[in-house]
Amino acid sequence: MDRLRTDLLKYLDYDGYASRRPNKEYTVRSIYLDTLGFNCYYEKLDGLQTRKKFRIRGYNTSEENNQIFFEIKRKYDNFISKSRAGFYFHNLYEVLQNHQNVPSLTERAADDFEYFYFHYQLRHLEPKVLVVYEREPFECKFGSQLRITIDKNLRSKAVDTFLQLYDSDRLLDVYRSDFVFEVKFFQVLPQWINRVLEKYDLTRLAVSKYTTSIERQGASIMRMNTFVRKDYL
User: Which CATH architecture has domain 2-223?
Assistant: First the structure.
């Protein structure tokens, strides 16, 4: 990882947020939602080319006025996109209980939240697992839309409420000695990336933090499920 990072920094800078933080990284926290029957999980295992994942994402540690995001990650064949709408963590209960009384959002964010809320109600989505890791994010020095992230120390915990987003106790290691290297780009991939991939003999793999975390939790996930939907907040 250290050698790879050195090569990356010839072409990339840390993004504006990470550059101001200790160790040039931040902690990503996501509670993934799924149906009672884990439809999203099995869609991934079955290799469906069109699928969605739903999560509530926050960062670092619990502080007053922390912002969280309702996110949908979409996969269409080899194309991946994400929509998100941001709120304060202390408004989470009100937003999900009465989505009409949400704080003011941009038009796009409001549409993204409505779409999330539609699936939340339609699919009876429930919090399933908390996934936590440290992220080093890089962006291109030359103004392209290239973004590269190194995600490490991946760990998880079975959860049944959104209030557990900032929990740090009883997290289980998911990848004990590995990190996830993601290359995100739009249309054009710079030539130098290919040289780096060849140098370290890196090949493309389908890695799902959600499904891997579900499998790591095993029976813990199943014990926390009930057959009657409850107030998850």
Answer: Alpha-Beta Barrel (3.20)
Model pLDDT for residues 179-193, shown as the tens digit of each residue:
999 998 877 788 899
Of 204, 209, 198, which is closest to residue 4 (Cα–Cα)? 198
pTM > 0.85: yes or no: yes
User: Under a CB-based contact definition with an 8 Å cutoff, are residues 192 and 107 in contact?
Assistant: no
CA distance 192 to 183: 12
In contact, 35 and 126? CB cutoff 8 Å: yes
Tens-digit pLDDT profile for residues 26-85: 999 999 999 999 999 999 999 888 999 999 999 999 988 899 999 999 988 878 889 999
Give dist(CA 38, CA 203) in Å, integer.
29
Nearest alpha-carbon partner for 125 in 138, 115, 110: 115
Q: Convert the pLDDT of each residue in 144-160 to its tens digit.
A: 789 999 999 999 999 99
DSSP per residue, the chain: -HHHHHHHTTTEEE-TTGGGSGGG-EEEEEEEEE-TT-HHHHHHHTT-SEEEEEEEEEESS--TT-EEEEEEEEEETTEEEEEEEEEEGGGHHHHHH-TTSPPP--HHHHHHHHHHHHHHHHTT-EEEEEEEEEEEEEEETTS-S-EEEEEEEEEEEE-SSGGGGG--TTPEESSSS--EEEEE-SS---HHHHHHHHHTT-------HHHHHHHHHTHHHHHT--SS-----
Task: Specify whether the CB–CB gap between 69 and 165 falls below 8 A.
Answer: no
